[in-house]
């Protein structure tokens, strides 16, 4: 594989040489992409390059330039104006420029320009290759050879084109849009026409009126992510060992019982769980009827004790998460080399010692990358909090968040709640990213899971 | 300034009355002739459960304005979330939509909605009760057509409590259990009003007009804390269930739930205005928030459809439509003559709501943009006092922080 | 000897006891959800474990309701799920295979960009997605499918992990015999990846049934509840009009049970593929 890569190293020919020594079509190719290819009968390539350039230029003239220019101030009109329409006898509002749309299409334009630059570079490379092939008298690939290469040496282009378009349109563009939103004053006060304000929104979150909420919520998010990942993993392994232990019959049946809980859609199981745990809900009723408790426990209500609610959330997460990690650990346990365990048994190690010194470390080793991903997933675990507690119990020291709110559910409240603080939520999004990135970086460095990547 | 405003408003009302009295029939006839020519395409958003009867209302509308094409659909997340639903994409939102009055201020400031024409303003002032007209007015302009009023009242089980028992909180909770939710600021922020304070001033438009960071505010906080000690005040997220099972004898709720409660209690259903409560050593009327349901016109509606949209909004809030809403949904009308119609006047729920909507019994929800922050912060404050996580010694500082946070310009 | 055997019996009995207790704890809330769906209740809250009164009216109502066109929701969701399963699986497998088996210039940057993109929380991008779809006039089921498929290109990790475990020697032997890379992909790569295709398809199929946020943002704009998918439709039953949650709560549970049953059965049957998918990704460590 790697030998082949070397063969493809570009032969010595600078762009200057192509420009100076190439014929007119090569020179023109620096301005009109694809001409050199066309001249040398590489129709498919040539038409593709030329067509894309023409399309780009048409777009640039008709919409591109204006949407790039508007990006600089996100629309000139920032204030609405109410005027009386005499003819109809009603008031009409002259609206500000819609900055949301301007920003979105501005970002899209930037992406298109960058893509065009990339295309231009690839055109130059292609032209250079052609030049070298002609200069050295090598075989110039024909049209059909070019097309065939799409299914052989360039198969990656064929397979990746559609996915990449999807990723750019539905992931990269929205993400860049979100990042740029953090540098505007897009909020309830400037809901239609907003402007660039630099790092002001970051200031609001880190030192301003949201700081008193941000840091405690961040702390709980980390505690939650650690606890949720650790508990489900540890008890999942234990449960798997229990089901796999000697003498237990109908293992598939037992596993299925637990898996059912995971399989039920979360918006059903968690929404109902919220009622199950209510102050006057079935669980409290059962416990009271059995005289296990004298007063109902407020597990997750809006006026619950924060500590109780946080523990409850972690326990409910165990209810949902243990079955999966049980399933996965089962698969790993079944494939563990038994000789080591047998040897340990021979030496008189008891079950606990075997687990502690052999089984558990081995499972941990295999599961490490998955655990890191789970940890990141738990930082962003929206469903469990949103559906179960909605962030409650209330905390009178916070601004717009509750005791079990994670950064991500708080972010949701800032976007879709009444306060409409879009820019602050974008800042939170970036901070969550930094948090996840830091942890993955450290973790991947240590496990080397992505070394080969 | 305010007195000047009153004078102009008063004179406008007088003028309108005189004009209408003078023109009388002829004016209505003239609208009839033009009504046939009004054209446009209008989309109407209402709550999911109300779609059916609004279709009836729109049918009436179409008889009068045959050239206006109206579609009735449900709003994405209900009228309570109008601000965020419309805000998500105003150009896709309906031309006319249902919205509670407390969101009008920020929607007007953001430019989502158009003010009413002078003629429509006059009509609202003439036809609807004064408090409704005030509730939809923001910075001197009217921004929506009021359609119903929502003040919470006391619902109770007749077999467990008598009409005399429910006159004061003390006797009420001595004889029966009251189930309610202290985590809902809509229920309990008005205790601060009972204690004698104001929220955003008397007019509800003064940014620095909140004055609960004083002894009166502390008295209200103390009252919340006392309720935790009261065995007959039950904290619950599901009052209806507690009423049904007989664990609770009374609750405070809005007219939107009256039908549900009636179904649960059957012949034992009874309703009354709020009792009196003892705040800061004084026996005072327990107050409520007064919300006015209304219809507003989207400012993104195409200019050629504006007139049709405004006309539709006016039509779905006229007397006839309000009465249809009352019959199907129990919405309490704000139209003066609808209120005096026999079916409304004889209804105990409507009567109780109308008593509660009187000044002194309730305060109209302010329309400030800051109300979003207010809702976010007031519930934890009240809940904190109730559960005791805010200690009496902290009341003063917590109230200071609260007032500062909701009085910020941005 | 007997004491040893007794000890073993005791140990087994204790383990069975523990297992039964755990199983009961795990399954009780699920049983309660099913029971609650049969309860006659108009208070919007089920406070007891066993309903005071049983009825099947909730199931009748949810299917005949005019306000909540349940049958349309199922139909829409099935439509979205089937199309998006086909397309997403194709996209995911293409990307995973390419990244695992083929070597090219852009490979490393792509892996890094994908890693970075995956770490941004998705909610903020929803506003952008809404406007993107709107500009294509795609605020409908088609748009929802596009969003699901568009995101599929980033969900390649598990499948890539699987492909990584297939020895490269097989490919190289085929190339020696003159096969093109496409032929290797089509005739060797795909047939060998049956378990991972099933896993990917399973995940893609389930997603539309449980996503209530994305679908809500994209579909609610129409204002026509006949356009909703099931997750958003059901979620919307509880959120919206004041007093609504009370009236429709038991219908909501019935609706939930109706969709939860097939998904659960489906998942339980497919669990071995799920495990192979997860462990394929994890084995790399």
UniProtKB/TrEMBL annotation, chain A:
SUPFAM superfamilies in UniProt: MalF N-terminal region-like, MetI-like
Localisation per UniProt entry: Cell membrane
Membrane topology according to the record: Multi-pass membrane protein
Transmembrane segments: 47-65, 100-121, 159-179, 217-241, 253-277, 307-333, 354-376, 422-444
Superkingdom field: Bacteria
InterPro entries named among the record's database cross-references: MetI-like, MetI-like_sf
Keywords, ordered alphabetically: Cell membrane, Membrane, Sugar transport, Transmembrane, Transmembrane helix, Transport
PROSITE patterns: ABC_TM1
One GO cellular component term noted in the UniProt record for this chain: maltose transport complex
Domain ABC transmembrane type-1 as annotated: residue spans: 218-443
One of the record's GO molecular function terms: ABC-type maltose transporter activity
GO biological process terms held by the UniProt record: maltodextrin transmembrane transport
Family recorded in the similarity comment: Belongs to the binding-protein-dependent transport system permease family. MalFG subfamily.
Function: Part of the ABC transporter complex MalEFGK involved in maltose/maltodextrin import. Probably responsible for the translocation of the substrate across the membrane.
PANTHER family to which the protein is assigned, alphabetical: MALTOSE/MALTODEXTRIN TRANSPORT SYSTEM PERMEASE PROTEIN MALF, MALTOSE_MALTODEXTRIN TRANSPORT SYSTEM PERMEASE PROTEIN MALF
Protein name: Maltose/maltodextrin transport system permease protein
Lineage: Bacteria, Bacillati, Bacillota, Bacilli, Lactobacillales
């Amino acid at each position: 594989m790697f030998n082949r890569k070397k063969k493809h190293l570009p032969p010595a020919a600078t762009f200057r040489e192509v420009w100076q020594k190439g014929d007119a079509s090569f020179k023109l190719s620096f301005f009109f992409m694809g001409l050199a290819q066309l001249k040398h009968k590489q129709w498919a390539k040539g038409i593709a390059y030329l067509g894309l350039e023409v399309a780009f230029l048409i777009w640039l003239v008709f919409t591109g330039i204006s949407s790039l220019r508007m990006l600089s101030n996100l629309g000139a009109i920032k204030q609405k104006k109410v005027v009386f329409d005499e003819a109809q006898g009603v008031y009409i509002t002259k609206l500000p420029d819609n900055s949301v749309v301007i920003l979105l299409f501005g970002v899209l334009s930037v992406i298109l320009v960058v893509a065009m630059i990339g295309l231009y570079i690839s055109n130059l490379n292609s032209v250079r290759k052609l030049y070298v092939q002609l200069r050295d008298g090598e075989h110039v690939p024909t049209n059909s050879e070019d097309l065939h290469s799409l299914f052989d040496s360039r198969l990656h282009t064929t397979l990746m084109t559609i996915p990449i378009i999807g990723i750019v349109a539905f992931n990269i563009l929205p993400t860049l849009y979100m990042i740029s939103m953090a540098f505007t004053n897009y909020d309830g006060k400037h809901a239609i026409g907003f402007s660039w304000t630099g790092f002001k929104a970051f200031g609001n979150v880190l030192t301003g009126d949201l700081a008193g909420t941000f840091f405690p919520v961040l702390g709980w998010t980390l505690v939650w992510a650690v606890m949720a990942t650790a508990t489900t993993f540890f008890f999942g392994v234990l449960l798997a060992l229990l089901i796999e232990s000697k003498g237990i019959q109908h293992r598939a049946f037992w596993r299925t019982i637990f898996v059912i809980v995971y399989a039920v859609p979360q918006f059903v199981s968690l929404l109902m769980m919220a009622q199950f745990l209510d102050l006057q809900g079935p669980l409290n009723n059962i416990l009271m009827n059995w005289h296990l408790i004298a007063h109902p426990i407020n597990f997750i209500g809006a006026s619950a004790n924060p500590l109780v609610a946080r523990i409850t959330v972690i326990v409910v997460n165990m209810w949902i998460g243990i079955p999966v990690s049980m399933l996965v650990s089962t698969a790993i346990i079944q494939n563990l080399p038994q000789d080591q365990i047998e040897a340990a048994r021979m030496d008189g190690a008891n079950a606990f010692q075997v687990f502690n010194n052999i089984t558990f470390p081995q499972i941990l080793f295999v599961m490490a990358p998955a655990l890191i991903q789970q940890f990141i997933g738990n930082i962003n675990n929206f469903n469990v909090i949103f559906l179960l507690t909605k962030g409650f119990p209330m905390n009178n020291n916070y601004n717009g968040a509750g005791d079990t709110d994670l950064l991500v559910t708080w972010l949701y409240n800032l976007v879709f709640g009444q306060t409409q603080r879009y820019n602050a939520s974008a800042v939170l999004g970036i901070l969550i990213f930094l948090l996840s990135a830091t942890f993955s970086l450290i973790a991947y460095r240590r496990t080397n899971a992505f070394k080969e990547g | 300034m305010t007195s000047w405003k009153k004078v102009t408003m008063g004179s406008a009302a007088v003028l309108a009355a005189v004009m209408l009295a003078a023109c009388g029939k002829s004016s209505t006839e003239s609208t009839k002739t033009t009504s046939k020519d009004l054209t446009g395409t209008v989309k109407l958003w209402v709550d999911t459960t109300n779609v059916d009867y609004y279709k009836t209302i729109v049918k009436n509308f179409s008889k009068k304005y045959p050239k206006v094409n109206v579609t009735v659909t449900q709003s994405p997340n209900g009228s309570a979330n109008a601000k965020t639903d419309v805000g998500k994409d105003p150009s896709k939102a309906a031309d006319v939509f249902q919205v509670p009055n407390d969101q009008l201020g920020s929607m007007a400031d953001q430019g989502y909605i158009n003010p009413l024409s002078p003629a429509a303003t006059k009509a609202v002032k003439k036809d609807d009760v004064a408090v409704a007209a005030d509730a939809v007015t923001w910075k001197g302009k009217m921004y929506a057509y009021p359609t119903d009023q929502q003040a919470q009242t006391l619902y109770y089980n007749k077999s467990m409590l008598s009409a005399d028992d429910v006159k004061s909180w003390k006797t009420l909770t001595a004889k029966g259990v009251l189930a309610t939710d202290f985590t809902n600021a809509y229920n309990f922020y008005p205790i601060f009003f009972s204690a004698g304070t104001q929220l955003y001033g008397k007019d509800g438009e003064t940014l620095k007009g909140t004055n609960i960071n004083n002894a009166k505010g502390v008295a209200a906080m103390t009252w919340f804390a006392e309720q935790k000690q009261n065995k007959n005040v039950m904290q619950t997220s599901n009052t209806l269930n507690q009423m049904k099972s007989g664990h609770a004898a009374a609750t405070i709720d809005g007219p939107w739930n009256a039908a549900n409660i009636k179904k649960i209690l059957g012949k034992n259903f009874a309703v009354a205005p709020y009792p009196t409560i003892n705040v800061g050593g004084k026996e005072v009327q327990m107050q409520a928030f007064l919300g006015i349901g209304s219809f507003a016109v989207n400012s993104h509606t195409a200019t050629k459809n504006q007139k049709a949209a405004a006309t539709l909004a006016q039509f779905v809030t006229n007397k006839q439509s309000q009465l249809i809403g009352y019959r199907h949904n129990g919405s309490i009308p704000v139209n003066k003559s609808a209120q005096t119609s026999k079916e409304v006047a004889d209804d105990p729920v409507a009567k109780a709501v109308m008593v509660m909507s009187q000044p002194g019994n309730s305060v109209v929800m302010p329309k400030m943009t800051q109300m979003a922050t207010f809702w976010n912060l007031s519930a934890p404050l009240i809940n904190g006092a109730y559960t005791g996580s805010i200690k009496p010694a902290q009341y003063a500082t917590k109230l200071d922080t609260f007032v500062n946070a909701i009085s910020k310009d941005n | 000897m007997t004491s040893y055997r007794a000890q073993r019996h005791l140990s087994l009995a204790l383990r069975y006891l523990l297992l039964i207790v755990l199983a009961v704890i795990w399954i009780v809330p699920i049983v309660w959800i099913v029971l609650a769906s049969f309860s006659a209740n108009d208070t919007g809250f089920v406070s007891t474990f066993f309903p005071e009164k049983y009825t099947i009216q909730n199931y009748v109502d949810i299917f005949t309701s005019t306000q909540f066109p349940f049958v349309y929701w199922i139909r829409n969701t099935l439509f979205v799920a089937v199309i998006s399963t086909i397309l997403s699986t194709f996209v995911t497998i293409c990307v995973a295979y390419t990244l695992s088996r083929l070597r090219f210039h852009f490979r490393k940057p792509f892996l890094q960009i994908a890693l970075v993109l995956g770490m941004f929380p998705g909610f903020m991008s929803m506003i952008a997605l809404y406007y993107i779809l709107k500009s294509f006039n795609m605020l409908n089921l088609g748009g929802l499918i596009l969003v699901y498929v568009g995101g599929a290109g980033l969900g390649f990790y598990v499948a890539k992990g699987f492909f990584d475990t297939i020895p490269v020697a097989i490919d190289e032997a085929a190339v020696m015999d003159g096969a093109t890379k496409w032929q290797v992909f089509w005739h060797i790569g795909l047939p060998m990846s049956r378990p991972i295709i099933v896993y990917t398809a399973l995940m893609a199929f389930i997603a539309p049934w449980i996503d209530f946020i994305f679908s809500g943002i994209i579909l609610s704009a129409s204002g026509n509840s006949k356009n909703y998918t099931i997750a958003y439709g059901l979620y919307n039953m509880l959120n919206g009009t004041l007093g609504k949650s009370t009236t429709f709560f038991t219908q909501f549970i019935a609706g939930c049970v109706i969709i939860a049953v097939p998904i659960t059965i489906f998942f339980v049957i497919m669990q071995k593929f799920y495990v192979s998918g997860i462990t394929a990704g994890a084995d790399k460590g």
